[in-house]
Design goal:
heterodimer; A: 293 residues; alpha/beta; Rossmann fold; 8-stranded mixed β-sheet; two-stranded antiparallel sheet; globular; B: 603 residues; Pyruvate-ferredoxin Oxidoreductase, domain 3; 4 domains; 19 helices; 36% helix
Chain lengths: 293, 603
């Protein structure tokens, strides 16, 4: 198998260099993503990265695989469409918090509900960097005059009963981030459902939160006795941590709910690769004429 | 099951070729059930059928009616007049008073009192307390529709056994109790008819049709999608498009396909784009409000060259408008709606048969030209049923255009998703094919699909995409022409105006006006050669459409630069044209030698 890292014959495009500012948290996400795909031996030809709009949403241009750049906020429905058409693909939706939690929040909620076996990486930085620093849904109170309480996607995901993998990483902790990303990929590729990974990924230009977040992150993976398979326990503990001014990270919750594909697809052969010209369909179509009263 | 039926009285009958029946009342009165029952009988009688439903956008209450017309001859609309009316309340009479034939028969539910004297005119009125009869015998008012059906059956001269059989067929799957109650209601109606109806004006000739099917445009569109290899449908409930999703939901999964109801039309179009990008044949369907939400997504499909079919079932707009009513006012939106410019194709079938074929063909167009293809429908075409020949399944072909296989990619030295090409169409890879890895994006991009703002690249990419529209012209459905070649008067219309125009042509012919009709089937790009050929030698051209502004006429004028001969006949009261309305409008313009460029019905 040919992995994203080691494509030998250059018969495809050369990825673009990232558009990000030096020091941007998104570099950490890109590095983790490359390493995870390589370590897990996921073939480049079977990988689809669905990018959102914003600085982070250009990440699909920076790897050698299949990529589709969606409209602002629409990366999740796009990714779900790809997955349902070909469930054998590794589908990774990647975008920012403005994309996912503001303009696309409706899809976020419904994707959590549906539990498709894809990975969703949100690079969360509390700001709209590409448009020069307006407050995003996760912006702290007071940031650029923000008066809206910040949105917490992990708590939201915990409150939806069909979620199966909820994690938060920090681009300042590459080791943990790569492990979480591998976990999310393994989760999705075992058809268990959505691997949701929010990454605290600071915008060094408009909202440099590295120092603050370094102090606030709290690694639940390292906490003895934390039961990530219990939704009430996860909700209680994360609420406590938030009250203490901490930001919980790690694999916060892991559960089991049938995936969207398990609920939806009626055959294992991907629709996208089906032979739709097969003459064996014709008698079956003719049978349907009987339904016309 | 033994059902004792009394013999119908000896009825003096007039053999008729055709009849038009309306069942009117409040939503929930079961009016459409009667229409369905009649439809089955007419089909078994070998007659052609056309029916239309007029309901409000609410589950119960409010005036609702259904019209069904049956004929030995080909029919294309509900016609001009109603011969028989079943009215469950007085409103059902007053609303259609002027549409009733002078010698019409009315079956009136007099549970709340007799029909006002002023409404009797020269009609034959049978008054029976249908609701009360049902309530006292069966404890439920709702069975009044079956009582009415029985009386109607006698008036139409159907044999009682035919009525019994059709009830059995309909209620067989709904349990013994439902069937027995309905059979009781039928007998109550027949008893009433035996006592009260001593002559009937109607007896229908049997037709010679066999094997025809009844289909709505929506059902035909859905079926065409399936047969055309469509395997991924995503939608959001919206009148009058929902039937397409409802038809596919139990059937498409049996072919391995997916019918997904999404959270909104933003998700619909983007989920569709994702599935199409991955290689499935995709359709989405909506009406105006949903289309407004999809407009950004359709542009995205155009820019990123993802093949997708979008069905737009027009209804009265804007905003919520009149969700259950007919209009053709989204033509501009479908043809021009966009920020920026992108290639698209817009086809418009006029009959259920065309819906089937053009739906399958739209999938080919989308994949061959790698762009969004609209199928423009309207509420009347979507939801009215008509008798048609069984759909020609074997006539459907599948052409996937420049879709690559792994083998064909292996021969390409360096794959570029948006490779410049002579015809503007680049070979298309889909995920999972080795060597076809690439970027697909709504950003302006270079040949690899990577973001580019290079001026010369922009010029080449825009030209590459836009020229596909011109290229597609040879593949797009040309208009259907009807009527004598030597006619000096022409009519142009799209969608559901097809039927009323065809019937109006015969009426005009009777008045001594020969008419030719060009049923336009490609709305964008307009096939100007096709139009100009039709328009040649005509002295007057009437563009008939259901909207205020004359959107189609304006488009035709813009490509033909013909402002002199074109007269616009528009109707925008929420209902379809009746043939006679078109006939009268054309006659009045011609007789006045008026140079009015537009004729707005009812204004």
């Amino acid at each position: 198998m040919q992995s994203v890292q080691q494509a030998p014959a250059r018969r495809i495009y050369t990825p673009s260099a990232p558009i990000w500012c030096p020091g941007c948290g998104d570099f950490g996400v890109l590095a983790s993503l490359k390493k995870s795909l390589s370590d897990l031996g996921i073939a480049s030809k079977d990988t689809v990265i669905v990018g959102g709009i914003g600085c982070s949403g250009s990440i699909h241009n920076n790897l050698e695989c299949y990529g589709i750049h969606s409209l602002h906020g629409r990366l999740l429905p796009t990714a779900v469409g790809v997955k349902l058409a070909n469930p054998k693909l590794t589908v990774i939706a990647a975008g920012g918090d403005g994309d996912g939690y503001a303009i696309g929040v409706g899809h976020f909620i419904h994707t959590l509900k549906r539990n498709p076996s894809i990975v969703y990486i949100v690079m969360q930085n509390g700001t709209y960097g590409l448009t020069k620093g307006q407050p995003s849904p996760t912006a702290a109170l007071g940031y650029e005059g923000n008066k809206d309480i910040p949105f917490d996607a992990v708590q939201t995901a915990l409150s939806i009963f069909s979620t199966t993998f909820i994690a938060r990483g920090f681009s300042g902790n590459q080791t943990q981030l790569t492990e979480l990303l591998k976990g999310a990929l393994n989760h999705a590729n075992s058809n268990k459902g959505l691997g949701f990974l929010e990454v605290l990924s600071p915008c060094v230009t408009y909202n440099d939160t590295y120092k603050q977040w370094r102090e606030q992150v709290y690694n639940l993976d390292a906490e003895k006795g934390y039961d990530r398979t219990s939704r009430p326990a996860a909700l209680t503990r994360t609420m406590q941590l938030l009250d203490e001014g901490k930001i919980p990270t790690g694999l916060i919750y892991e559960g089991t709910t049938p995936s969207l594909e398990a609920n939806t697809l009626t055959q294992t052969e991907p629709i996208a690769l089906q032979d739709i010209t097969s003459p064996s369909n014709i008698p079956r179509y003719e049978e349907l004429l009987k339904d016309f009263r | 099951m033994a059902t004792q039926l009394e013999q119908a009285p000896n009825i003096k009958t007039e053999l008729r070729n055709q009849i038009s029946i309306m069942i009117g009342g409040q939503g929930g009165d079961g009016t459409l059930t009667v229409v369905n029952l009649l439809g089955r009988i007419f089909r078994d009688y070998g007659l052609n059928v056309y029916d239309a439903r007029n309901v409000l956008s609410r589950i119960r209450g409010g005036h609702a009616d259904g019209v069904i017309r049956a004929s030995c001859d080909e029919i294309y609309s509900t016609g001009d007049e109603i011969d028989t009316l079943v009215a469950f309340d007085e409103e059902a009479v007053t609303l259609v008073l002027n549409d009733l034939a002078p010698d019409a028969t009315i079956i009136f539910d007099s549970s709340k009192g007799p029909l006002a004297q002023g409404l009797h005119r020269a009609f034959t009125v049978y008054e029976a307390p249908l609701g009360n009869m049902a309530a006292s015998a069966l404890r439920r008012n709702i069975f009044k529709n079956t009582i009415a059906f029985a009386i109607l059956g006698r008036i139409l001269g159907f044999e009682d056994e035919v009525l019994v059989q059709v009830l059995k067929a309909r209620y067989a799957r709904r349990g013994q109790e439902a069937l027995e109650s309905n059979l009781k209601a039928l007998n109550i109606g027949l008893d009433y008819a035996t006592k009260s109806i001593h002559s009937s004006p109607y007896k229908l000739k049997r037709g010679t049709n066999s094997g025809k099917i009844l289909s709505t445009g929506n059902e035909a569109t859905a079926f065409g999608f399936l047969v055309g290899g469509g395997r991924f449908f995503v939608g959001y409930p919206i009148t009058p498009a929902t039937d397409i999703m409802e038809w596919l939901a139990p059937r498409l999964p049996k072919f391995g396909g997916v019918v997904k109801q999404a959270e909104d039309e933003l998700a619909v179009i983007n989920m569709g784009i994702g599935a199409a990008y991955a290689g499935a044949r995709v359709m989405v369907a909506t009406s105006g409000p949903g289309q407004s939400l999809m407009t950004e997504g359709v542009g995205h499909a155009g820019e990123s060259e993802v093949p997708i079919v979008v069905v737009e079932c027009q209804r009265v707009g804007p905003s919520t408008g009149e969700p259950t009513r007919n209009e053709q006012s989204d033509i501009n939106h479908i043809v021009y709606g966009s920020h920026g410019e992108f290639p698209r194709l817009v086809v418009a079938p006029g009959t259920a048969s065309e819906c089937f074929k053009m739906s399958a063909d739209a999938l080919n167009l989308a994949e061959k030209y790698q762009l969004p293809v609209f199928i423009l429908l309207d509420q009347a075409l979507c939801q009215n049923s008509e008798s048609v020949q069984p759909f020609d399944i074997k006539a459907v072909t599948i052409d996937r255009g420049k879709l690559l296989s792994e083998e064909s990619i292996s021969k390409i030295p360096l794959y570029k998703r948006y490779q410049y090409s002579e015809d503007g169409i680049s070979p298309r890879s889909i995920p999972s094919l080795e060597g076809g890895q690439s970027q697909v994006t709504g950003n302006e991009h270079n040949e690899f699909g990577l973001v580019s703002v290079d001026k010369s690249n922009r010029l080449r990419m825009m030209s590459k995409r836009m020229k596909k529209v011109e290229l597609a012209k040879s593949d797009l459905p040309r208009g259907n022409n009807f009527g004598p070649r030597d006619a000096k008067i022409g009519v142009i219309g799209i969608g559901s105006t097809y039927g009323p125009i065809i019937e109006s042509m015969a009426q005009l012919q009777e008045r001594g006006t020969k008419v030719r009709f060009h049923q336009l089937r490609t709305v964008f790009p307009l096939l100007e050669d096709d139009l100009k050929e039709f328009m040649q030698g005509l002295e007057g051209i009437f563009v008939v459409e259901n909207n205020y502004q004359g959107q189609l006429a304006r488009m035709i004028k813009s490509v033909t630069a013909d402002n002199e001969r074109i007269v616009n006949i528009t109707k925008f009261d929420g209902t379809s044209f009746k043939p006679i309305e078109i006939t009268n409008a054309i006659s009045s313009v011609l007789s006045k030698s008026s140079d009015a460029a537009s004729f707005k019905l009812g204004v």
